[in-house]
Amino acid sequence: MSAIPSERRTQALALLEWLEPGAPKRVAENLDGFHDDTTGITREEIVEVVLQVAVYAGIPASMNAITAAKSAFTSV
Questions:
Q1: Which of 3, 9, 33, 34 has the fewest Cβ atoms nearer than 10 Å?
Q2: How do residues 56-72 score in pLDDT, each as one tens digit?
Q3: Percent of the chain at pLDDT above 90?
Q4: Where would I find the Carboxymuconolactone decarboxylase-like domain in this sequence (predicted)?
Q5: Nearest C-alpha neighbor of 31 from the set 67, 1, 57
Q6: What are the tens digits of pLDDT across the range 14-27?
Q7: CA–CA separation, 7 vs 17, rounded Å?
Q8: Cβ–Cβ < 8 Å for 58, 21
Q9: For position 19, what pLDDT does the model report?
Q10: From residue 4, how far is each of 34, 65, 66, 69, 75 by CA, in Å?
Q11: Ranges of each domain in the chain
């Protein structure tokens, strides 16, 4: 497997950060795309982004994102 370009990973993580605060449904819809071989982003990295954004987005928005992540990860 070739290395994932760091720009692709950075773009995906930035998009996740941008989506999380105001659009938990969109986060849920896109989590499978974030966690795959095209981005190289791990589950742990997704959870870390959600936890870091909680400070800015608020706990309710982050809890929605965590719930969406749990749902997406269990369906894999």
A1: 3
A2: 777 887 787 788 778 77
A3: 0
A4: 40-70
A5: 67
A6: 766 666 666 666 76
A7: 15
A8: yes
A9: 61
A10: 13, 25, 25, 22, 24
A11: 6-74
